[in-house]
What we know:
Strand content: 25-35%
Largest sheet: 6 strands, antiparallel
Radius of gyration: 20 Å
Helix content: 10-25%
Structural class: alpha+beta
Strand order of the largest sheet: 1-2-3-4-5-6
Oligomer: single chain
Amino acid sequence: MKKYITILLLMLAALPVAAQNMRTLFVGMPDSIVPLLTPTNRADCVDFIDAGMRAQVSNRLSGKSELLQLTDDYLKMKMSSRSTLEMKLLPSSGGDTLICMVRSVCAEACDSRITFYTKEWTECAGGANYFKYPQIKEFFNAGDSLGKVLDIADIYLVQLSLSPANTDVEATYTMPAYMSKADSAFVSKYLQKIVYRWDGKRFIRR
């Protein structure tokens, strides 16, 4: 009997952790991480999308934010007309789950920042150990023309995109949007996207 009680207690203790899918994590996240959205905003977005409705709310700055996609392990939110938020749950080789968050700001071109949190919303120290940003030269398959390409592509603007279907991160060099038509056409013919896959410890290039 004592053995069965111990097993039951262990199962009950595990329930709150198992229930922490993207919905519960998003609604319960600290305001300091995404201050534009109130707790009510976040809860309403989840309720709307679950009901098959457009999940758009008025945020703290009286602008519009919209939850575009939500699954058990992925979320994409249009925070404003110029910014987006993506989150993905990543299983780690140590048995824990990390929250990967990508914030992107767009004008003519987009630029992104990536951060990692525990499921208790503590930012992970040493985030660079999980993802290393590519160098500009890695975006170009230019051969002997690489030097000329890098003379033009000398500003670092990179958009990161999480995948709802798997644990990939796609990196895109976006600076050509600010270049002259001729420079953009020249560098774009050598441009390539870079895809990283989570291996349980870090993102590695595919």
